[in-house]
Design brief:
This protein is an alpha+beta fold. It contains eight helices and four strands, in the order E-H-H-E-H-H-E-H-H-E-H-H. It is about 40% helix and about 20% strand. It has a four-stranded antiparallel β-sheet with strand order 2-3-1-4. The radius of gyration is 15 Å and the shape is globular. It starts with a strand and ends with a helix. It binds 2'-deoxyadenosine-5'-diphosphate and magnesium ion. The site of 2'-deoxyadenosine-5'-diphosphate (DAT) has 9 residues, from loops.
């Protein structure tokens, strides 16, 4: 069982709506390990690099406007299977199609304001954590609850 890392980000709407604690709690209660956390105002170039695969999409300019419109909360989470599991906890891209019980299903109504980002593969998890965090901003530690989460 391979430990993975994923990049999770509360988008500006999640911060403005006071949902930061609620969103962090979903991952914390599930049993994943937080290894990086910061409030950050993201420069345009970083937003464009993060979403570079979507550069040709018609919604790209609005997406960059949105992500750079206010502070975001950047997080790195670790665990076995964390990448796919975090995507499930987050729910579908369109919040109206996201299942109740998921973050987007419970807390959002529109694709353009879907409150949270999660990496879509372990490779992108690595890429995005390297993009959003500097050396020294990530923390290696062993949670006291570790033996109560995995045998
Ligand atoms: P996800 O965030 O679920 O991984 P994605 O990677 O396909 O979704 O797209 C990144 C973000 O771009 C998404 O969270 C919101 C925005 N987006 C995607 N498709 C869109 C669309 N059809 N119209 C407007 N915004 C869109
Ligand atoms: Mg994506």
């Amino acid at each position: 069982e391979q430990v993975e890392e994923t990049y999770i980000m509360v988008k500006p709407d999640g911060v403005q709506r006071g949902l930061v604690g609620e969103i962090i709690s979903r991952f914390e209660r599930k049993g994943f390990k937080l290894s990086g956390l910061k409030l950050f105002r993201c420069p345009r170039e970083l937003a464009e690099e993060h979403y570079k695969d979507l550069q040709s999409k018609p919604f790209f300019p609005k997406l960059i406007e949105y992500i750079t419109s206010g502070p975001v909360v950047c997080m790195a989470w670790e665990g076995v299977g964390v990448v796919a599991s975090a995507r499930k906890l987050i729910g579908s891209t369109n919040p109206l199609q996201a299942e109740p019980g998921t973050i987007r299903g419970d807390l959002a109504v529109q694709t353009g304001r879907n409150v949270v980002h999660g990496s879509d593969s372990p490779e992108n998890g690595q890429r995005e954590i390297a993009l959003w965090f500097k050396e020294g901003e990530l923390c290696q530690w062993t949670p006291a609850q570790a033996p109560w989460l995995r045998e």
